[in-house]
Amino acid sequence: MVEVLKKTGGAEISMENLLRIFTVPEAPGSTLNRLDNDISENLAGFLQEHIVAEEADLVKIEQDFNDTRIPEVPVFVSEHTQFLLDKVVAQSVHTSSPSFVGHMTSALPYFMIPLSKIMIALNQNLVKTETSKAFTPLERQVLGMLHRLTYEQSDEFYDTWLHHGRKRLGAICSGGTIANITALWTARNRAFGPDRDFPGIHHSGMFGAMRHYGYEGAAILVSERGHYSLSKAADVLGIGRDNLISIETDSYNRICLTALERKLQELKQQRIRPFALVGIAGTTETGNIDPLDKMADIAEAYGLHFHVDAAWGGPTLFSKRYRTLLKGIERADSVTIDAHKQLYVPMGVGLVLFRDPSVLESIEHHAQYIIRQGSKDLGSTTLEGSRPGMAMLVHAGLKIISRGGYAMLIENGIELARRFADHIVTLEDFELVSDPELNIFTYRWAPADVQARLLEADEDTRREINEILSRITQVIQKEQRERGKAFVSRTRLKPECYDQQAITVFRVVLANPLTTDKVLREVIEEQREIAAGMRDSSDMRALAALVRTSV
Amino acid sequence: MVEVLKKTGGAEISMENLLRIFTVPEAPGSTLNRLDNDISENLAGFLQEHIVAEEADLVKIEQDFNDTRIPEVPVFVSEHTQFLLDKVVAQSVHTSSPSFVGHMTSALPYFMIPLSKIMIALNQNLVKTETSKAFTPLERQVLGMLHRLTYEQSDEFYDTWLHHGRKRLGAICSGGTIANITALWTARNRAFGPDRDFPGIHHSGMFGAMRHYGYEGAAILVSERGHYSLSKAADVLGIGRDNLISIETDSYNRICLTALERKLQELKQQRIRPFALVGIAGTTETGNIDPLDKMADIAEAYGLHFHVDAAWGGPTLFSKRYRTLLKGIERADSVTIDAHKQLYVPMGVGLVLFRDPSVLESIEHHAQYIIRQGSKDLGSTTLEGSRPGMAMLVHAGLKIISRGGYAMLIENGIELARRFADHIVTLEDFELVSDPELNIFTYRWAPADVQARLLEADEDTRREINEILSRITQVIQKEQRERGKAFVSRTRLKPECYDQQAITVFRVVLANPLTTDKVLREVIEEQREIAAGMRDSSDMRALAALVRTSV
Q1: Which fold has domain B124-404?
Q2: Stated pTM of the model
């Protein structure tokens, strides 16, 4: 295709023609204009019509993106749009499909699309007020609204700090990973701050800090269900991945507090300074919530920065019915929430909140031409530099969906997950692996006779059966994805009931409000059908043999 | 306004109503639908009509964003849209105006707007192929195209590495800051990698690495014109801001090579390990380019990772006429290019390229449910996690504007800057402070008699005059911005001719293809007019007195 486009020549190149692309709108009726209208009029229809359901092989798709030569002369907009439709849109993932319940990207409210267009047309840069004007106070208001949802401070508190020159209630960024890194960066800089002649870790680095404070290292503690961004944070911050201390979890995937305290004692003896404790509100794999309140006690007792990674579960706070699940979050020093997850905003926006509006000063920076000392430029306390006005979309969500609307969406997801898990328990051929606390849980294909055999088998046989089941689960997941009608993801867990043996499980994430009980039953139906089709595979035969050898 | 919206009640809240926002498009003729169409039909007109020119006081604007209570019930989309129009769009910055020549955000090509809408409607997540499919090879192609532009490797090279499972030609991210951090993160991890029993800095952190390798610290070197993101990088990476070693520049704002070598010797004696040298291709304040080829020699001789921050100047490579200015960039280990600057893509996308496709392995990470070992998921080597499909817009720019088109845009900006600077030299009342090498330069208001006085005055008088001129420049810049017709930015420089005294200067950035010589003359005209209006100010009187005391 690319070759064809090139051969057709493309538009004549001249400064006059170039200026046209900056000044002349796409003609009504042009391919691009048509798509623009189609999306406005019927987004779901557009996606349905243009995305090919059946999955093409990635290696085959790659062939359309092989040419690394930038064309010498322009390709016509219409031709490129046709290429995008045929080769990109067609081969993209239908993330908003009600039967795609395997990832954390859901359907978007309609109003988000034209609002995004306005945001992009305005092309503001939030690094400084000179290129963002009203977007700066708007972003601060968004931070204030979510800060209030989380920390419930007084009117006076918000009146004082919301638009304050030097203080910030948080930072908006491209997503949860940057939010988590920002939080741990402040935690590190505060734990090893200026002290007598020592100018602070931000000036002297990790090595100088450890020497000045007389430690052998610094550590961050989190349960073994912690998101991989934390290990990335430990690496990038110069702490080291080995110093992200992974604490075992109980059978509900929650951090084990006695193991945590034991580890803290151990670190003390090793002269390693733990400076941050991370609680999880909605583990990525199983949707569980750590005992935040008790973790806050421990953080207080040991002088740790308490960060809560609520990238997924934060919006549970909207629900009066379920917000108590997160009790203790209001005691966190910082909290990560992803807006492109359960705030239903398009991809590319997350945020971190700080209980104390002074915390971000520990990473403050300035330059001569922007974010000068004393300015209200938000860029002085963000990890990123130039940033788009995504806050406008979060703002619109909070206003148009409202507290009550978000609560309903959250409750709908939790209750749908509950019903689906309860249904799975009644099935002969599936096994619920992790029970839903929020709207995420795991299960696997495992017929009743196999489950019975697992209960009474010796250790070796049990391991063997579980390994076969893992392979079968993986094949089912992949085959279902390739068929293109439904999608669940898969992960590996080490359930207590199988002596911590790692097993592969299906993982469902139920945040799309268009997903119904019926859709979910069809997902199971298709998985059952795929399993039936594997009847003659070597794994299935081996499994049957292992079940037959039962005493 | 917010209060009014609330009092009007908003939409009734029920799950049925909520589902409507996910399933029912905005009605034709609704406020939002109208704006959507207006932008498609006439973007420039939309911005012209809705953005208020005269600048409102930020404190006044803040009053519209004071409420931190999330509404209990939904605000109607139409009402919220009206609020956005009146309070956000109206009070945003007209970044695409031809007379706004003070920042690095320019006009956007028309086609970028509907394409952005398609990208947002698809809502892909580039962290893994499961949520991005064709977007993953597309992103790799974009990296390949810009890699080829920069490094000009063979067809075999690109055939082998473009879509390789473990190798990457670079990483796309939200902007230049993340790109620079990513580059320096790999540099740090490779300089202190695994060695005998030492598992590498990514496992053990900075402290363990310094101890194992027997250093007293690690350092990054860059000229004093380095972007502030580098100091942020030194902080976040645990190197420390004091270990970002700032090397003096010559009168063309280019790194002084003898000073650089002297510093490298000095660090050696202090047992501090310099691991990265950063060259700048387009300094933020003056648009100058470091002697990259000679820096590459030094980096080679001292075993340093050579990174080039070409966030601004990278696209100069499109121009056959000017690409030689960047000679030596092809020897860099890594190069940062911002797409939302001179690739004319909407805010929020930059990238870093690596000459050697193995470099990114030094920051590789995996998880159980995504970016598994052996997958082609791009998330295994990015600092960010979830990421939007912005690469689609970069891709469209490269195809539709083409090599030839970008070359023309670049050449137009450089030549416009040349003409404008030449014009300023002819003026009686302005002084050119830094001569343009690319399309950025600085100047200030300084009448001929003041300039003459500066030449012959004693040191104290010269300092005093320069301080007064700095204050006047600042007032003119601010007043011009507030009037809203034109915008230049300001910064502080220490020119050699004034014995390194810091002076405030106007800074112009000429990347908007709609900016003409005429527009620039009007900018000067208005500045002259503002200066004339300050006739009776104490600064102007003091300045006149100092000029009169001339011998």
Answers
A1: Aspartate Aminotransferase; domain 2 (3.40.640)
A2: 0.97
